[in-house]
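tokens incoming
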């Protein structure tokens, strides 16, 4: 069995440097740095120059750069590669080059090799992906966000609200069912299951909240499923809160209009104009509501569908901490009294306590800042969180200014529009028969992210809008 290496790579590098600079002989360098004389001699004499020595030499510099560019390209478009997929692409690159390698061609490079690759590119990191539905991914794109901020800037400037945060509001609702899971870790014995008792009863209660850019919070509106609690439920709760019920416990048009009349108009202040921004759910819009808003000099902007996780202050920084605090309080009550239960009648008091402990003036202001709503700031939403414009539709190739090969669509073929559905984010396609030239080149090649030799290995994600669906 060969003897295990007993020296550090750093020691070997120093020994080789000392010999190459004629500061030490090979023998003296071996003695001073604790590296075998034959090892230093082999490296100095170039024995390993043409040998596949270690993970970093398996790909050429061009191949590694292309692979990293591909990883970034796919991540930005919502198709991040797993470690397993990365290894598969490495094998495909080597097979394409047709050269020998120390890699196992069935399993791919080792995890050690991948770790070294990531260490050489610290801009990359491995993390658990957050789930995002297709509609949210489609609508959370650069074009949609740019259009929204243009509308917001124009509206704020026109209304003269640039320096009037107390006249800019955001409202939305969030539900509580008693099934929310705690994000707080607990101490328990190894190898055992850990259970935690909460005292919230199952059901559905919706809280509708409204906040202003200057940090103040309007009275809350609670919506119960079925009916209002039979017992007293207003104890320990601000007198100006509003209550309602629906069969499901969710907001509907009538309830929203009731909130608009009894909470927003009386509590949004006397200064006008006022700007109210909320999502475009059907329950929030009605002819009567629009007429009342006009009569009270209240202007309304609807957030783009499926973008509230980025653009709505309440979703960005308020509802998350509030739900966690409600959960913490319910757990604490469960630990203090195993017989305690918090039903419909007691939930308002619990929620009120959570709001007092969570929602501060500073937190509300920060929620508006983080969403770019006030001060209005498009740059606060990084493009890395958005889907870029589709290459095939946003960067049309001109035949006279590029040498990219094109394929002609005949007049018997169809072209789709790029209109997005305002509700689901799917592409609404009307089709027409035209003759047009479209690029068939891999966009990563035309963007100089990869060489043409890897164009059939490192492929961009498929464009879902070009995959026509048939209904039978």
């Amino acid at each position: 069995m060969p003897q295990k290496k007993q020296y550090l790579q750093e020691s070997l590098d120093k020994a080789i440097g000392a010999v190459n600079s004629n500061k030490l002989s090979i023998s003296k360098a071996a003695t001073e740095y604790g590296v075998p004389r034959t090892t230093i001699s082999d490296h100095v004499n170039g024995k390993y120059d043409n040998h596949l020595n270690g993970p970093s030499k398996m790909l050429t510099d061009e191949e590694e750069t292309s692979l990293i560019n591909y990883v970034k390209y796919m991540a930005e478009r919502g198709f991040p590669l797993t470690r397993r997929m990365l290894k598969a692409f490495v094998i495909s690159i080597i097979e394409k080059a047709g050269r020998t390698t120390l890699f196992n061609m069935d399993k791919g490079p080792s995890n050690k090799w991948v770790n070294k690759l990531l260490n050489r590119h610290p801009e990359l990191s491995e993390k658990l992906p957050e789930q995002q539905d297709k509609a949210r991914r489609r609508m959370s794109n650069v074009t949609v966000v740019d259009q929204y901020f243009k509308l917001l800037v124009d509206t704020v400037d026109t209304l003269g609200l640039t320096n009037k945060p107390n006249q800019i509001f955001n409202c939305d609702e969030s539900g509580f069912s008693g099934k929310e899971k705690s994000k707080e870790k607990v101490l328990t014995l190894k190898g055992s299951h850990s259970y935690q008792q909460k005292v919230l009863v199952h059901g559905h209660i919706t809280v509708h909240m409204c906040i202003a850019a200057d940090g103040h919070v309007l009275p809350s509106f609670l919506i119960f499923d079925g009916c209002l609690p039979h017992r007293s439920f207003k104890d320990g709760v601000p007198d100006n809160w509003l209550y309602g019920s629906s069969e499901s416990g969710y907001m509907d048009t009538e309830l929203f209009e009731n909130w608009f009349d009894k909470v927003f108009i009386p509590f949004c202040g006397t200064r006008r104009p006022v700007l109210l921004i909320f999502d475009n759910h059907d329950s929030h819009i009605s002819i009567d509501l629009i007429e009342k808003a006009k009569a009270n000099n209240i202007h309304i902007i609807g957030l783009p569908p499926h973008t509230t996780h980025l653009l709505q202050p309440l979703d960005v920084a308020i509802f998350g901490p509030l739900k966690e605090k409600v959960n913490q309080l319910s757990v604490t009550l469960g630990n203090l009294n195993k017989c305690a239960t918090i039903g419909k009648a007691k939930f308002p008091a619990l929620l009120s306590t959570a709001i007092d402990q969570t929602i501060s003036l500073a937190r509300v202001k920060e929620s508006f800042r983080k969403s770019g709503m006030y001060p209005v700031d498009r740059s606060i939403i990084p493009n890395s969180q958005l889907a870029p414009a589709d290459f095939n539709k946003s960067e049309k190739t001109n035949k006279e200014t590029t040498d990219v090969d094109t394929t002609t669509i005949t007049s018997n073929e169809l072209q789709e529009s790029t209109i997005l559905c305002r509700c689901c984010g799917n592409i609404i396609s009307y089709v027409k028969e035209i003759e047009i030239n479209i690029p068939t080149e891999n966009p990563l090649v035309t963007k100089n992210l990869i060489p043409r030799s890897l164009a059939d290995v490192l492929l961009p994600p498929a464009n879902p809008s070009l995959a026509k669906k048939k209904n039978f």
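note: The first strand starts at residue 168 and ends at 176.
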